[in-house]
Structures are given as C-alpha cells and as structure tokens.
Amino acid sequence: VRLQVRVQASVEPGKELEYRLSVKNNSPAAAHHVRLRNPLNASVQFVRATPLPTSREPELVWELGTLKANESRDIVLVVLPTGDGDVKNCARVQFEHGQCVTTTLARPKLNIVKQGPVRATLNDAVSYRIEVRNVGAAEATGVVLSDQLPEGLEAVGGPKAMQWDIGTLKPGQVRAVDYQALAKKKGVLNNVAVVTAAGKIREEAHSSLTVGEAQLLLKVEGPGRAAPGKPISLRLTVSNAGDAATGNVALSCPLPAKTTFLSASDGGRMTANAVQWTVGSLPPGSARVMQLALQSAEAGEVVVKAASTAEHGQAVEGEARVLVEGAVGLTVDVDLKDPTLKVGAATLYTVTVHNQGTAPATDVRVVATVPPQMKVDDAQGASAAHRTGQEVAFEPLPSLALGSPARYQIAVTGDKSGEARFLVQVSAKELEAGPVTKQRASTVYDTSPEAASTPNLNPEKGP
Known about the structure:
Elements: E1 2-6, E2 17-24, E3 31-38, E4 44-50, E5 60-67, E6 72-81, E7 92-96, E8 110-115, E9 119-121, E10 125-134, E11 140-148, E12 153-155, E13 161-169, E14 174-183, E15 187-197, E16 201-212, E17 216-221, E18 225-226, E19 231-240, E20 246-254, E21 259-264, E22 269-271, E23 274-282, E24 287-296, E25 300-309, E26 315-324, E27 330-336, E28 340-342, E29 346-355, E30 361-369, E31 374-381, E32 385-388, E33 391-400, E34 406-414, E35 418-427, E36 436-445, H1 449-453
Parallel strand pairs: 9-16, 18-26, 28-36
Antiparallel strand pairs: 1-2, 2-6, 3-5, 3-7, 4-6, 8-10, 10-14, 11-13, 11-15, 12-14, 15-16, 17-19, 19-24, 20-23, 20-25, 21-24, 22-23, 25-26, 27-29, 29-34, 30-33, 30-35, 31-34, 32-33, 35-36
C-alpha cells in the first residue's frame, strides 16, 4: 500500500495550506484495516478535510477499511499556519495483509429415492423401488435401509417392517431394492423409507398411495312381453360405479331354455351355449352397453340371466324376465246362400270365426243380429244358440285354437221386402279393443199381387 502526499513547496504566512493525500493498494491482493494517521504540527491549525477524519484527537485518523487490489482513496486536508517557521507535516499509513485457505473434510452423504405408483385399486399388487446413493466424498459405512409399511399395505412374501443391511457404499455407488405390496385398504396410505449410516447419518424418502375401489354393476333389460317366434331384444349394461378403474371385465349370458340365439353386438359370440363378451377395462364412472337378440318358439316366461366378472374376483349378476305370449287375431267370414231372397223363401247364413293370431282365444262369444226383413228359423254351430227376437247369441267357446275355425249357421226366411243387413259380433277375453264385427247385405223382394199394386213411394230406388 503506497501513500503519496502533495502540497505547495512554499506559501506566504497567514495563508492556508492544502494537502492531497492519496492511498493506493498496488498489490493484486486486498489490504485490510487500512488506517491513515496524520498528527498536526503545533504551528498549524486544522481548517477542514474531505472526507472528514474518523477522529481528530490526539491526531487526525482516517479508517479506510479494506482496499481491494489497485483500489485508491484520496483525502484533501487544509490547515492554517500559525507561526513564522516552516511547516512540516508527516502522514503515515497502516494496513493488514492476510491469506485464507480452506481444507475440505471428506464426508459421506446419502441420498434416498423411493419410486412407486401414486394410485392403485383395492387388492392391486403395487411395485416399489428404493435407491440409496452415496453422493458424498467419502465412503459410508454401516448403511441400513428400512421401510415400515402403513396399515392397509402388505408386503408380498415379506414382513410388514422390512430392513436391508447394505453395508458400505463408496462415493458415487448406488444400491437398489425392489419389492411388491398388496393394497388392502381404501384411502391415502403414507409411509417413510429411512436409510442410516455411521456418523449419525439419516435420510428419509416419503411416499403416498391413494387406493380406490372399483364397483362393478350389471343391468339386464328386456321388453317385458314378446310374441312366440318374434325377436326378443335385450340390453345388457355393465358399468363401474367406483372411484378406481377395473380391468379384465368379461360378460356372459347363457341362453335360456327353449330359446334360439339370433345376434349380439360388440363382438359377442356363442360359446358352450352362452353368449360371451370381452369388455376389457372400465374407468371410474364408465359403462358399456351390449345388445342381444333371442327368439322363443313357445309361449311362457323366459328368464335371461347374465353374469359379469373382473379382476380381483369381482362378480355381479343381473336378470330380466320376458313373458312370451301369443297374440289373438280373430277374423269373421259371413256367407249367404241366396243374396237375393224372395219373400217366403228360405236361405242360410254361415258364420266362420278364424283365429289367425299366435295364441288361442278364450271365452269366444258370437252374437248375430238378423235383419227385420227376415224371420229366424233355426240356429246351430260350435256352441248352443239362444234366440231373443232378431238376435241369436251362441254360448261362449272356452278356447279357439289356431287353425281350428268355429262355424255357426242361421236359417232364415224372407219376411218382407227391403234391403237387409245381417250383423255379427265376435268377442274374446284377449280383445281389449272390443269385438270384431262383420256385416252382410242382401235384398228381400216380394212378387205377390199385393206387392205389385203398392205404389212406389221412392222411385229412385225402384220396386
């Protein structure tokens, strides 16, 4: 550190003297605790200084602190001579120079990382891997790794509290352990893996596993009623109502007795008298819908039972009941032997009731109304007849099978001329919309002299 002082070589008595003091560190290292001292001669008086000194008694002192390499500080000092002799001023600089060195102590340092899933499904087997690495500069001895599993997480083939004696780890060396555990409880499962070593070294690795549960559901829906020989359309819905995904979902629907397989959607196929589907995985809240078409040739109740399975032993069942019953379809034919009938002449109405549906008709009743232009002579047929005026009612048939028509005959005689309309009504228990009706028109004419002399009151219609 160099000190340089500059001042006028001579000055007249009574005038101020200005000193310029420059302190500079000429070395490449820092100078510490730099102090500039300037005692004043008794023949001068302090006027001012820039910067001001740190202290003025018993001498002027500037505490400059640390001067970095090649750094300098300048001070201006002004004094006033008070005597007649020459003025002598002495300034001195003090400083400290030191050097610091660091020696690194080689220590071991362990780092622990636990890898594993953050989500799982109840009863899942989850895999974990714990890595211990010596990231320090010296070998670690007495290294022990332990992992205490929380309640609800069970190690596969091992104790609940697991421990591994690793021994010595050199700098940069890593050791890893792998194990599996079963998630046996829903919720958030937290645990801490710990590694220790000689020298009170201890590090932790935290892990958290959220365990959810899949809820497999199966719904089978059918039409409720169907006709023999007609397709029965079924809807099978398998869904996951839980908060975790499930996999390996399969669906099976055995064919009910006396039914025939028609078709299946989504790749369903017949295997060993059952329709099988491979559904795969179902995320939480998702559903898959399969369509199935069957056919039953016979009437009766068809019970469709289906079952669905998934991983971890999940199994559910569902069923739908379909009543297969035939439809009654009654038709009536009315034949008249003589559509044009002379008064006094006889003719015959033949009523034939057919069941063209798919099921027998029960409590079949036939009621015929003979027109007033005719007289009822006789009535007979599939059941006994009862006459009330112009109405002929036959006793009900307990059942009318398919392909076995019921016939009824009513013998009449023309009574008076005019247009005649024969009406027949057929009812059955299954006909909820009402009876089936049929009319047959005919004409009754009179050839007697009395009829010929009767004036025609309606010329448009003729005699």
